[in-house]
Each structure stands twice: as C-alpha cells, then as structure tokens.
Amino acid sequence: MGSLEGILTGFQVAFSVEGVLFVLIGVFVGTFIGMLPGLGPISAIAVMIPVTFGMDPTPALVMMAGVYYGAVFGGSTSSILLNAPGISGTVATSFDGYPMAQQGKAGKALAIAAISSFIGGTISVLLLMMLAPMLSSVAISFGPPAYFALMFLGLTAITSLSEGSTSKALISAVVGFMVVTIGIDAQTGTQRFTFGNANLLEGIDFLVIALGLFALAEVCTLIIKRKDLSLDNTHKLGSLKITKQEAKEMSGPVTRQSFMGFVLGVLPGAGATIASFIGYITEKRIAKKPDEFGKGSVRGLAAPEAANNAATSGAFVPLLSLGIPGSGTTAVLLGAFLVLGVQPGPLLMTDRPEIFWGIIASMYIGNVFLLILNLPLIPYISKILKIPRPLLISLVIMFSIIGVYAISFSTFDLYMLLLFGVVGFLMRLFSFPAPPFILAFILGGMMEQSFRQSLTISNGNYMIFVKEPISLTLLLIGLLSFAFPIIGHLRKRKG
Amino acid sequence: MLKTLNQKVSLVLLAIAAGYLLLSYQLPSYPYAIVDADVLPKGLGYLLVILVIALFFTKDSETEEQKARRNIPKKDILALLAVFAFVFFYIFLLEILGFVLTTALFIFFCSWFLGYKKHLTNIIVAVLFPLFMYFTFTEFLQISLPQGILPF
Amino acid sequence: MKKYLLMLLFVFLTVLAVACSNDETSNGDANGDWEPEQPIEIVAPAGAGGGWDTTARMAAKVFSEEGIIEEDIGVVNKPGGGGAVGWAYIAGHEGSAHNLFVASPPLILVPLNGQSEYGYDDFTPLANMIADYGAFAVREDAPWNDLNELFEDMKEDPESISVVGTSSPGSMDHIQFVQIAKAAGVDVTKIKYVTDPEGVGLTQLLNGSVEVFSTGVSETIEQVKAGTIKVLGVTAEERLEGEVLEEFPTAIEQGIDATFVNWRGFFGPPNMDEAAVKYYEAKFKELSDSEEFADIRSQYGWNEMYMDSEEYKSFLDEQNEEVQSLLDELGLGE
C-alpha cells in the first residue's frame, strides 16, 4: 500500500464518527490531567490504559495519542499562571509566560501559548505525515558521541540565560550539574553523594527542583510583597486579543521552532524538554532585542510552546516507525499499544495502515479541538489569579506538594522540595539566575552518560567525538556559540 | 577583608565546593570503567572553585532593582520563617493525618496567618479544595494519596 | 504577635488529631481460616507504567473483577532507589497481613549491589506468577549467527565488542549476559558493557554504535519480524511459544548450560502470619489459573510460572547464590 493510499485511509479513520469522538475524549482528558499539579503525559497515559481494555485498537490508540499531546498542551497553564511548571517540557514556558501574566496580561499569555502550541502541533503533524516513513533513519542516526555533542550544544547556551553577571550564571549551572550527579551512576552502579539514603539512589526528581526553584521561590517573593498594592494589576486577566504587532513577532519563532522542535523530538532521548530549551535559547540568540527575554517577551513564550508541542509529534516517529520509545512517556505509550495487541515497529505502517495513519491524521483534528477547548476556557482558568493573595499562596504551596507527592509518594521528596524552595529564594536574593541551574540539571545527566558511553565503546579513544560528521558539526557550533558571547563581552568592556 | 557581598557569597560557595570535592575523592572505584564515576564530580568541584575565585575578585554588578530585593523588613522575614514552619508541619503530618485533613488545616491557617480575613470563604475553600483534589486523584485517576485517619 | 498564636493553635490541633488517631493494625485469627479484614494494599516499588506497576494493577483488577478477593485492593506506588524505598516501606509493616508488594530479580540484585538494606530473605514470599526471559540481539548484517560465534570473537578480541543494556552494571541486563557468557567460557571481567539509561539501547544497536543488545525477549520480536536484527539466543530453559518467539534458539541448545529467568511474583512483609500466607497462596493460584489473567499474560507476552510460597523460597535461594558468585567474580557488590 502506497503512502498516499495510507494517508487517505488515515483520514477516513480520523474523520469517522468514532474517530472524532475518541480524539475529543482523548484531548479533553489529556488537557485536564495536564493542568493538574505534577501530572504530566506519563501519568495521563498510565491512568487511561485500563480504560482501553477490550476496545477496538484503532479508536483506543487515537484516544491515547490525544491524551499524550493533550497533556503537553495543557501543561503550560500552571507555568504561566503560577510559575509552577508541572512537567519538564514547560519550564522554559514560565521564563516569559509568568512575567507576562504578572504584568496583567495573563489572558494574552495563555492565548499566545495555546496558539503557538496549536501551530507547533499542526506543522509538526504535517511534517510527520510527509516524512514519517523517511525519518526513521534520522531517528537512529545519533550515537552516543552525537548525543554528547547535542547536550554540549545545549549547555553552551547558559551564558545567554544570565541576567547580568556571567560568572554567577556559570556558578548556577555548575551547581545544577552537581545536583544531577547525586544518585546511582548508570555506567558503574556506583552510589554518588547518596549518604546511604535509599531516597537519593535514583537522584533528585526534576519536579522537586523545578517546583522548588520556581514555584516556592516565587511564593517567598509573594509573601514579602503581599501587602504591596502596586502589584494589583496581576489580578487582571487582560485582553485575550493578540495584536497585529504581536502576531508578527510570534510568526518567526513559532515557525522556526515548529520545525526544530519536531526534529529534536524525533531523536530518542531528546524530546520536548530539550526542544523547548533549545527553542527558547535560539530565539533569544537571534532576537533583535534579547533583553526583552525573561521579562514577558512574546517571542520567549511562543518559542518553547511551539517547540514542545512539535517535539511531541516528533516523538511518534521512532515510536510508530521503529517501535523505539524515545522517552519515559512514549515507553508508557508503547505499553498502551501492547495492551491492545498492536506492536509498533517497522511493520506497523504496512500491516496496520489504519492505525499508523489513523493516529497521525487524528492529530490534526486533535490540535483543532485543543485550540477550541482551551481558548474559551482561558477566562475561567485565569480566575485563579483573582484569588486573594494569602489564599493563593496557600494554594500554590499545596499545588506543589501534591505535584511532588503524586510522582514520588514520599515525604522525603517533599522535604527536598522545601529545601530547594529555600535555595531558590536565596538564589534570587543574591542574583544567581535559576534557568542555568535547571538547564544544567536537565542536560547534564545525559551529557555525562553519553560522554562515558562513547569512551567505553571507543576503548578510551577521544577521536570518536570528531570522527562522525554529526557530532563534529554539533561540537563546532557549540564551541562557536560559547565563544561568541564571551568575545563580544570582552570587546564591549574594552570599548 | 570581606568587604563586598560577592566575597561573602564566594566563601559560602567555596565551602560547598570543598565539601563536594571531599566526597568526590571518597567515591569507590569501579574496575572496568574507562572514565570512572568520580571524574566528572571532581571536574565540577574544581570548576566551581575556579568560578568562585573569579567571583571573589569581581565587583558587584547588580542593578539597583536586584539590590533592593535584599531589603526585606524584619517582619516579613519572620512571616517567611513562619510559613516555612507551616509547610514543614504540613509535610510532617501529611502521611499521619492524611491528605484531606492536613491540607484543610494548612490552607485555613496559612491563609489566615497571611492576613486573609474572610473566615467563612476560607473554611469553605479549605474543606472543598482538598476534598476535590483527593477524589480526583484517588477515584478518577487511581493515584492514591495518604488516607490518614479519615474513613475514606 | 497574635498571629504566632495562630501557628501554635495549628500545631496544637494537628498534634491533638494525631493523638486521637489509633493505630488500627489487626492480626489475623490464630485458626487457619484467615480472611482479610481491611482493604489490601499492593505496593509497586516503582512509578506508574513500569513492569511492577502493570503487574500489580492487573492482578488487583482481576482479583476484584472476578470476585476472587472481596476486600478492596489498592495499588500504591513507592518509587525510588530501584525498589529500595518501597522495600523499606514494606519492611516497616512487619507482621501485617494487608500489605503486599510485587517483585522481580532486582529484589535479589539490588541488595547484592549494596543498594538496599532489605533483601528477598527479609520478606515473606507468597507466590510467583509469571516469567520473562532475556534475549541477546545483534544487527541483521552482523557476522555472528549464533552465540558461540559471538563468544569466540569475544574471547579473541574483547575490545571490539560492546554490549548495551538499559540498567547499570550488576543489574538485570548486565547479569543475564554475564551469566550466559561465563558458562560459554568468556572472561567476564573483559566484557565491555555500556548502560543506556534513556532506554535507547535498541537505537544504539541499529546505528552501529554497539554490537550486542541485552534485553527482554518481547522487545526484540517486532525488529526481528522487520528483519533489522537477529536474536542469537534467549535465556530460557526451553524454546518459547508463539510466532517468531519459537524461532529463537536457547543458550542451552547451543551447548551453553545456563539460563536466566526474569521472574515476577508477590511478597508480604517480614513475619507474615502463616494463615495469611496460605490464604494468599490459594488466591494467587486462582488468579494464575483464571482465564482473565491468561488473557493479560498473552497481551503482555508474559509466560505462566506459578510457584507457591515454599517453592518460591528455595528458587530464590538458588538464584541468590548464582548471582552472588557472579558478582564476586566480577568484583562487584558488597
């Protein structure tokens, strides 16, 4: 069966009454769960698996896919309104989304996020449809040296995430990197910095860091400013309308990051988090006014939202065409396929075209539904900001606590959350930026592991990093992007 | 000697770096590794030392706004500490009393403490919100939260 | 200052509530016919979606839906430390007859690697339910056609062959490979093992970064069907059943006398009441024999492997000894 015929079959499936109904259920449940504290796509999918028992596999999987990208879509809400990113893919969203909401433009921020997500989702589904059969070779093209180079490239962006002092940004990153070394080292099984505590063996969970450094640190600031009436415009929802000027500003970053996010999503192990960070950093680098980033920039909000949704579609490439789950989330999604007796892999496209193309085609509809669902909800959701300050503070704390508890089920992690809340607040007081910390935390672990995997494979020969074109290219770009700001900085000083 | 703020902060960070390095040197070695588990931590430790030394000799480059962040009235510091104490008790009692009861108590008292005067609204929110969350998680999502001493 | 009184009040009230709450653990009757008296909790010592979590949830589902156990059954996730956090939690419920957990080889491996205070012999084995086996895969165009050819090359030039698995050295993917390789006479200290914690070991195999992928059999089926990889051997005792699966040769039939079972079953806390053990043993047997659970097994590609408490205990002792000697030879573990 040719691709074109397959695509047609897919649309038939997706636009059947059953197809439309289950996409709708999927994205609705996904968005709802995605908005809940601490619950991201993984929990959303795991929760829905038992529901699909005994269902016909095609509508069931169309629904599960909807749950997945619906949860990513809905995840940005708490980042924007409360500075409390619930999943790693939406941390970068809070960098500009939260400041924008604080300026009384919460409605606009949510609308920009929803529209960027929609465009990112739609462009990437288009790419997925056209390129999925070909992209499977791209998905496996990255060996450990290339992953190392990719993480290195991401880390070089630290300097551009600083607000002022470069040395403070670097210190922040090094400490973030140190925190990620806590736990069992995967390459040797050695326990590092665990103090014999079983709770530390798997390392500190990302959510503990993100909610501590962002949400709880923000709570501290809110407590201090709780009587400051000048901040009252944060209660305002503001207009949802996006001006022509803003639409123009968005168009570049959204288009670029839809493509880039998709490609990064295709790589197993990279995924939405790395895509959103790299998207944010790239846009900051090439923006004419990089100073606006971090202060409620439209571009800074649109870029990571387009990127993380595009990466989500990208993740379907290795899953559907190779049967390789590229992340914890797609691994659970793979489980959902297996339960229904469908084995994703190289044969899926020819053996079960209705499933392969049906899922992809349904994602068009899913994205439209998500936009229709989310936009009218914005005024209601942003009512959260109208809650009186003292009550809001209590609720954000509770929100963070459930968020962490729902993934770790241990009070130990909650104490760690409190600790990182204090660390985050102190970092604010002494002007150490938090984004480099979290970036190093996210990229550092994989960077170290792929570095050491490479050297084990090459028996200690460092040439492995420059032998392949992919890793060599990425390393060179990384070096340049690291050197340029520093050279520029030095020049400015002289001048 | 310690005139600038950067210098004081540097010393604290230096202590962290030293502690981290000390622990790195105690990591057991693994017989088959080409790059062992201690290499990166040692590298990070020294890198932090270098950066901290650089910071020590850097002049403060903070903006006025950044400096103003540290001007916290004493009353607010006490309030912060009190909220941290609330959170600490919240965590401590979460698995003992259960999610619903602890959360309700926390929301009510923490909001009251921070100056929320509408007690009736406060009570309603403090009771309904945890109940809603609890049932959403345990019944709909099948994710168990601590039940504690309440019968459901 | 009035406000600080509020905090005192908060503390006082909560402490009062603690004081009023009675511990309601009750032990079973002394006579043989024990029945659960309160909801049963099954702990999955990992997060949602993994093998332990799935097994626990499926068991709980069939227990309730088929009315095998009347009392409510809740699955609780206690992730952390590769299981160690969940085991410590269960160990804290000594003697309770209402707290179970699901386990597999990590319950032996993790403590032997010095990563958990509690091991299999601290708990009460109830019943084993299913078994899974390991598979060693290479690329379709690789020069080796069976395990012996691979192991011959590993003996001659160990530096040229890397093995990838998802878990760290000393844990399942590593040990299953080492166990078979050792039986074939390979110097196990020279095996180059790479961990891919992101779970993309298959990618690394397909793009030629590594030569061998040590994994579970079910992960290989689809790729074998598509003709991208070939499975040189599986760790089962006899050939497995099922399409494609039946074509995988065992190590034993290639003259390598070694197996590795990825068993999965249920345990209770330390010193569980004998009557309760008997009760659960019977219930798990009923579960294992039920049609509904058979369906679930086939959906997930699990093999039936029921063992009662006693059989289970001696099986575990045997496994523990084997792994211990392997780790000693590798110079790993405590």
From TrEMBL, chain A:
It comes from the Bacteria. The keyword Transmembrane applies. Residues 21-439 form the DUF112 domain. InterPro entries: DUF112_TM. The keyword Ion transport does not apply. Keywords: Membrane, Transmembrane, Transmembrane helix. The chain crosses the membrane at residues 20-49, 61-82, 109-131, 138-158, 170-188, 200-224, 259-281, 319-343, 355-378, 390-408, 414-443, 464-487. Pfam families: TctA. This is Tripartite tricarboxylate transporter permease.
TrEMBL record, chain B:
The chain crosses the membrane at residues 9-27, 39-57, 77-93, 99-116, 123-145. Signal peptide: none annotated. The keyword tRNA processing does not apply. Residues 9-146 form the DUF1468 domain. The keyword Repeat does not apply. It comes from the Bacteria. Keywords: Membrane, Transmembrane, Transmembrane helix. InterPro entries: DUF1468. This is Tripartite tricarboxylate transporter TctB family protein.
TrEMBL record, chain C:
Residues 1-19 form the signal peptide. Belongs to the UPF0065 (bug) family. Gene3D superfamilies: Bordetella uptake gene, domain 1 (3.40.190.150), Periplasmic binding protein-like II (3.40.190.10). PROSITE patterns: PROKAR_LIPOPROTEIN (PS51257). InterPro entries: BUG, Bug_dom1. The keyword Ribosomal protein does not apply. This is Tripartite tricarboxylate transporter substrate binding protein. The keyword Oxidoreductase does not apply. Keywords: Signal. It holds the Pfam family TctC. SUPFAM superfamilies: Periplasmic binding protein-like II.
